[in-house]
Amino acid sequence: MTSEPATVDTPLKKLVGERTAKALASHLDLHTAGDLIYHFPRRYDERGEHTDIRSLDVGEQVTVLAQVQRTAVRPMRQRRGNLLEVTVGDGSGGVLTCTFFGNQAWRERELRPGRWGLFAGKVTEFRGKRQLNGPEYVLLGEGGDGEAAANEEVEEFAGALIPVYPAAAAVPTWVIARCVRVVLDTFTPPDDPLPATVRASRNLVGIGAALREIHRPTSKEELYKARRRLKWDEAFAVQLTLVQRKHRAAAWPAKARPAKRGGLLDAFDARLPYELTSGQQAVGREIAADLATAHPMHRLLQGEVGSGKTVVALRAMLQVVDAGGQAALLAPTEVLAAQHHRGMLDLLGPLAQAGELGAADDATRVELVTGSLGAAARRRALTEVAEGRAGIVLGTHALLYEGVDFSDLGLVVVDEQHRFGVEQRDALRAKADQPPHVLVMTATPIPRTVAMTVYGDLEISTLSQLPQGRSPIASHVVPAAEKPAFLDRAWRRLREEVAKGHQAYVVCPRIGDGPASDEEAPREDDNGRRPPLAVTEVAPLLAEGPLHGLRIGVLHGRLPADEKDSVMRSFAAGDLDVLVATTVVEVGVNVPNATVMIVLDADRFGVSQLHQLRGRVGRGSAAGLCLLVSEAMEGSSARERLDAVASTTDGFKLAELDLEQRREGDVLGATQSGRRSHLRLLSLLRDTDLIRDARAEAITLVEEDPELARHPALAASVAALVDSERAEYLEKG
Description:
Layout: H1 13-16, H2 18-28, H3 33-37, E1 43-45, E2 61-75, E3 82-89, E4 95-101, H4 105-110, E5 116-126, E6 129-133, E7 136-141, E8 162-164, H5 173-186, H6 196-201, H7 207-215, H8 220-249, H9 264-271, H10 278-291, E9 298-303, H11 309-322, E10 326-330, H12 334-348, E11 365-369, H13 375-386, E12 390-395, E13 409-415, H14 422-429, E14 437-442, H15 448-454, E15 459-463, E16 473-479, H16 484-499, E17 503-507, H17 535-544, E18 552-555, H18 561-572, E19 578-581, E20 594-599, H19 607-614, E21 624-630, H20 637-647, H21 651-661, H22 664-667, H23 670-673, H24 688-704, H25 712-721, H26 724-732
Parallel strand pairs: 4-6, 9-14, 9-15, 10-12, 10-13, 11-12, 13-14, 16-21, 17-19, 17-20, 18-19, 20-21
Antiparallel strand pairs: 1-8, 2-3, 2-5, 3-4, 5-6, 5-7
Helix pairs in contact: 7-8, 8-24, 8-25, 9-11, 10-11, 15-24
């Protein structure tokens, strides 16, 4: 180990030793002093303050600050030796039982009632009691008298605020704290990258003080200042990246696609069987104005399930066709691409029949390009696209492949944008001679700060009205483990709807045997829970049991495309009563006669996913019913999440809940780029004002110095916090 000053680039093995450095690298991906210094505590505990043991989830890897309440030794039943049970509590009324196997009299003497400690392990459950089996622990001193613990590893915890780090089973929080202490003793902070004018105007502490106080806070006030400064750095880096991208994009050339009087769009509006909502009209005007400019539109269209986004997108596509260009819509699944194709052909009628008898004078063609097209059909479709006769092209990832060429691609529409990676969206844009206009759509409502942070370089349009004719959806949680009779009632309720002439969905998290696919939940949780229920296993059980006699179809992503299309057509035509499916029905599937959905293992799905799924019912004149079946126990976070989904159909409220329960780094693109996120402290829900202020400062700075040439340290800091891959993700939305 070295006594030389440490910088952010100093390898950890020079500071904490080879063995510890190897553990930090392999378990936490921490390699340098900078990696460790920016590995911030997850929270801070105080002796005597509880961490609410009652809220812990089974299977969760946790560190709790707790006090030993009592110990008990009893013989093991299955083998020789004794079992030590140590009951610890945190002041909230919740308790954990820590179990240690084997004859360990020394541990019983050490874990005396009244002593405080940090206990780390995986939460399990046995006979209704929360347990930690053989947890790692470190004691903080004698309970009540404040005696400092003798263990060197506990020195860090002598103060009032105890940092608790994101840890691994092999590297508990107190080991990380010890390593941080060693690094801080010789650490030389980098030059402060933030312009002095910004620091002064926003009352921000220096970077050196912030990095020390975040790990070893001298008071709550100093900790607040440190966190605020480091949050600012994260927000400022993202906003500078987005503002720079927007600044550069404004200079890109694009072909203007102005509206044309008396063209396809006017003819389409005249034949629409219903009136557009005021929201659809307003958003349509925004998009039309964007398309008419010589710079590429880059707009996000968000709207609740069923708010009419597809019609808005189709009108934009027709404006581009009127202007001599082509428009492509990228859909995440073949089921959705085929449904878009059928729906647009129905809406356009003779306007989509160019070259056919009875076609309108200025008709175009609408082509579907998917991976399952036969060779002859594919050749014909690609010729129509390449020669420009197909003004509207719909497809899946197949649109991205080599050999799909456009005559004049003017608009790219990405449906359910979160289902596509950066490279896929970019590949489609690259098929145009000049940057095309881009419209990305999502039915997952986006909280304002997420929009500002993740989509800050897009213009955003929101459809909040639902078209006339949409019915309300009632949602209820069915606690299958606690009240099995409720599940029986759910199946009877489904049969009642079918008896009225309606149809139903049953959704499962998994397909069945075979390789896992993107539409599936994980096979088995780390905590050993049973595998999620599977479509191929559930469907025959339902056919033989509670849904005997009903016409049941199966739909999932592993079926051949023609079979998927056939099943979906049969369901849409009313030839099937029940569709047992995976989340392949999550987006775009539109069967107005379907009134009930039962989601099995609902706790295996995300909040936004559940909201999307239930949007498949209540699409006609009859009310919709969504039943969320789960074995999650009352009081668990999984159950609270389901209760929240059942309590509201407000997508924006649910989006905020979803955000609260996910790592902020995931929202900010870490999972998209496959890299470890450096955005750790910023909360997109709680730091709204800070994000807004950072954006204002970023706009001012980029207007004065677009490439940050006069601020090289800041440019380097931004590059470290938002690497190039993540910047691309942020740019493309």
